[in-house]
Design a protein that fits this description.
By secondary structure, the chain is of the alpha+beta class. 19% of the residues lie in helices and 22% in strands.
Length: 456
Amino acid sequence: MGDDFAGCKVDHRDCRPRHGGDVDGEPVSVERNAADISAERRGEFDIPRLAFGQSRRARHRRVLNRARGLIDNRREHEGEAGDEQDSHRDHSMFEKPDLTGREDRSGNRALAFFGHRQTLMSVPTKRLTAEADESHKGQRLDRFLSERLPELSRTRLQALIREGRVALGLRTIEDVKYPVKPGDRFDIAIPAPAPATPAAQELPLNIVYEDDAIVVLDKPAGLVVHPGAGNADRTLVNALIAHCGESLSGIGGVARPGIVHRLDKDTSGLMVVAKTDEAHHSLSEQFADHGREGELERTYVALVWSAPPRRSGSIDAPIGRHPTSRIKMGIVPVAKGGREATTHYRVLQSFGGGREQTPTASLLECSLETGRTHQVRVHLSSIGTPLIGDPVYGQGFKSKIRTLPEGAQGKFASFRRQALHAASLSFLHPLTGTLLKFNSTPPRDFASLLRALKEL
């Protein structure tokens, strides 16, 4: 942690620069061409969008501009993800078009329709194939394809099936539960990623690592992750779209960054973001597991009022929407909609109060076993140790500032965010399987607050 954190027994060394190099003192190797190699083995190449059979139902799902036949490939807005802070799997939505012109009823509808619409439907796609053997007999189509094409999430494959982009010979298969038979050879047409809905905006980003599949960054306090109500732009997503540019190969069919976990607006620290569908799928699974069986680890450092009842422990309490406040979460029984949540904490240092008295404040290290919205903030507040500066869960402790020495009161009163920093992050690289470890030193405002506490 450097000089300001001497004696705190926390190792939060700065990460190495982006684009490879050493991470945590050890070399990191990323196979940047793994996706290209696997695609080449499958015989991937560009074809027009309707190069094989399309049923009438499938054609009616296409969004065609009445005059020019253009495709409107939209996606749902991410918005809030309920109580989870994990993956956001959005997919393209298609509305019914207005089709004109005659259709060939001779049975070879794919070729006839393609010939009629060729000039209108020249959207570039890539083609993948998957062939079933005896071991796949009776398996659902979506499950079979997710096993054979791990670079695409099952949700994405289900969307492609329903959009009429999976063909068996001249037949279009739109049923995700279609029972696969040995010898079935499926053609999958994947459209080029649609332009992202949020605008690209050049904003300063602290990128600590980047390759063809992922971006790891140190998010500053004050930066919102997703566009939403009250924050239509100038978010992390807007900045990443501008930063990554054409290197975004598409998440769920849209050229956007894949957010697999979030930090609150006023929480600083490390985040990893996916640049491809394959990376998004892998990271989503790791974050869903929360390190129970895998290598994922996330730790936070927090400055809190008072001190926990023990030097280390776990807070196991379900979290749900607060019954009376729309902006708060709270401890809510599972029977009333709460979701299981577990936070582990360890006291690194306590400040003020003397030997016989309760400390004025403490520095904690926290790790999560689940990823609920506001989890650390709600759990620490529930045991009487809210985060310093937390405007939502620490209001009752504002009067404590007046009990501090005059020199410290100003620093605490001017700290207008929760004192929480995502200090370390480790996970398996989604393509190579390499274990990546990153550490981040808390920002200046956090360090300044800690210096003030040490003087108590």
